[in-house]
Amino acid sequence: MFHRILIANRGEIARRITRTCRELGIGVAAVYSDADADSSHVRDADVAVRLPGYSAAESYLDIERVLEAARHARADAIHPGYGFLAENASFAQRCADADITFIGPSPEAIRRMGSKTEAKRTMANAGVPLLPSAELTGSDDVAAAGRRVGYPLLVKASAGGGGKAMRLVHDEATLDAHVAACRREARAAFGDDTVFLERYLRGARHIEIQVFGDEHGQVFHLGERECSIQRRYQKIIEEAPSPAVDPPLREAMGAAAVAAAKAIDYVGAGTVEFLLDTDGEFYFLEMNTRLQVEHPVTELTTGLDLVRLQLIVAAGGRLPQELTDFHVRGHAIEARLYAEDVEAGFLPASGTLARFAIPDPPGIRVDTGVGTGSEVSIHYDPLLAKVIAHRDSRAEAAGALATTLQHACVDGVTSNRDLLVGILRDPAYRRGDTTTSFLSDHPPADLVEEARREAAGASSAYLLAAALAVVEHGRDTAPVLRSLPAGFRSTPAVPQEVLLQDGDTAHSVRLLVRHNGYDITLDDTRPNLTVHQSSPNLVDITVDGVRRRLTVEFAADRIYVTGPESVRALGVRNRFAEPESRIEAGSLVAPMPGIAVRVNVEVGARVVKGDSLVVLEAMKMEHTITATGPATVVAVRITPGDQVNSGEVLVVLEDHEDEAR
């Protein structure tokens, strides 16, 4: 088949492709940026080639460097994975020119489907149903185009995908601003600022059909996946089959997807995406000319290895006839575990994973590219893992996946774990009432409310476990007398005090060693407590009659306590007075790490509530920092192009209290 395949990607998808190559006896070459030098996908490969630089543009998106890496590694094929260069027609063509097999469709097919506007024209000619839309050129009257399409509408990047460069617009007043922002995001993410307008269907489902074609004219579909649960137009939960698709509808959507693939002589793995409305009518959205992030749910329900099929097709082979009569076995649901702050509007998070562990009993699949000690960078998508459950029924799959995620340990970065669990256990989700507006109709704060109540009820146990671990950790790391018991005092009447910070709330835990254990108070209250085991990383305690085994990790200035109810990130406060805060009054700080792409104000400027002050970019998404009220800019601490850390001061304002009133 192939001697060696270079995987032009990183993280979990690079590791996923490596697994199939290993099973087929094919050698693997990896590429890596400076940010990924210690990543697991590099260790998995036979050989690896460095792509100098940290950002995607400097490394994984540099066509010349990737091709040079393939030559150095003596690779005769390149698998692009998803994202990066996977849907870059120029890259596919350069591979062909270099006599290197591109594991994907032809450059022409990528080009035709890569332009969403060209794709719509092709699908119209193939008889595939479409939503009203309008392509925008430099001379177009944007407002008039919006009126033709109708509101609400989406502004979308023609070369886009993955939810990037997409804005929902409800009325004409804000259309120009959204178009401009979408153009900037499209240029940054895809190198092409062409955008178009498309009618937005509220209450629709996002259904996609997996297709496969080969060089011998065969095109098959492998059924549907539902991907309606989304945030920021990016999928977070996917499943197969869809609870809304019956056999006749599956046949109709499958036929439309096959017609779409045949219209462009498609070869390889692809996905045709549709919107399904409440009346059962479906409309073409786009075609992704690559392997999808959510391909595992199709693999688990069909028993097929989609990467293996890609390699067969790329080597010129015929697709097996079993694809003509595939059978769906059970139900599979995938959840994307992201490093992000749900409460802050899904802002991406970064940092070091102090501990990362996800249970994987039979029926659970975990695809990940990170582990304990991995650095979650600001330069790439914040996906930590895909966790997939396969069971006989949808209810069983949802329950198993929720339980697995609940017991996942993600210490060191903020994640969307609790939101995923809340969705999977929500009655509406369990009924199959899943639409693209699910997170609008069921706000994240409501979905995690039950978890918050349970966490609040167990708060004492987590605080006490943290304090006990602090004492044990202090004894283990003491420079002298480590043989003494934790919490030892030469004057036993004086308890040891541990000061903990839980969000905005401070807590005091006082511990005194007795011959039969600890004498402990929490905020001057003596809990009903039994300590069964206490170490720096594991505390087994019974509080108020309930026994819990809680894991503890120390990372920088935080302690992470993980149990069945939640992950608690606690600060340890110095017992001595802290110096006065150095952050000036009126400071606006970065809500997440990123790059300052625009600074819209200067010292002396007067602003009002809602004015854009600074625009940050993180993971190719723009985030605008706005004024909270009438004020004067008294300091600007950054310039365009600066990389900023979370909490770093960007702008200092002096409020105009009289105007505010």
Automatic annotation (TrEMBL):
Q: Which residues form the Lipoyl-binding domain?
A: 582-654
Q: Which Pfam families match?
A: Biotin_carb_C (PF02785), Biotin_carb_N (PF00289), Biotin_lipoyl (PF00364), BT_MCC_alpha (PF21139), CPSase_L_D2 (PF02786)
| PROSITE patterns reported in the protein's UniProt record | ATP_GRASP, BC, BIOTIN, BIOTINYL_LIPOYL, CPSASE_1, CPSASE_2
What does the record give as the reaction this protein catalyses?
A: N(6)-biotinyl-L-lysyl-[protein] + hydrogencarbonate + ATP = N(6)-carboxybiotinyl-L-lysyl-[protein] + ADP + phosphate + H(+)
Q: Which domain of life is it from?
A: Bacteria
Keyword annotations for this protein, in alphabetical order, are: ATP-binding, Biotin, Ligase, Nucleotide-binding
Cofactor(s) for this UniProt protein: biotin
- Which ranges carry the Biotin carboxylation domain? 1-444
User: What name has this protein been given in UniProt?
Assistant: biotin carboxylase
Q: Which residues form a coiled coil?
A: none
The EC number of this protein is: 6.3.4.14
Q: Where is the ATP-grasp domain?
A: 120-315
Protein species of origin:
Mycolicibacterium pulveris (Mycobacterium pulveris)
Could you state a single Gene Ontology molecular function term? Answer: biotin carboxylase activity
